[in-house]
Design goal:
By secondary structure, the protein is α+β, with helices and mostly antiparallel strands. It folds into two domains: 50 residues; 70 residues, no CATH class. Strands 2-1-3-4 form a four-stranded mixed β-sheet. It is globular.
Amino acid sequence: MREHYITACLDLVASGMSVEAAVRGLASTLEKRDHSRLLPSILRGMLRELDGTEGTAARVFIARSEDVIALRNAIELHLAAIGGTTDATITVDETIIGGVIVEHAHQRIDASWKTALQKLYRRVTS
């Protein structure tokens, strides 16, 4: 269903409708059909189609350089889930504390300790 919405919206844009009008119409249609939760996913799919980032290198963020070896299986699994290849750019970001963040083609898998701790904190304090 998501792919049908992406194709329909891109067809509208290709036929001359402004992107803003197409997205507004899409949002209205999704709301009427109680599919509003699909909007972010559809917009990411449209971005991938419009800017052609499918072939670009993925980015991997880790807390320490030695985590590349320890998290190799998790990194490969996350890259495969979002269509990235193993020739990803690896960046050390000490602020994520541990774990890994993988980005490719407007998709992100955040398996960092920082995010897990923030989610836990929000659940406990709210």
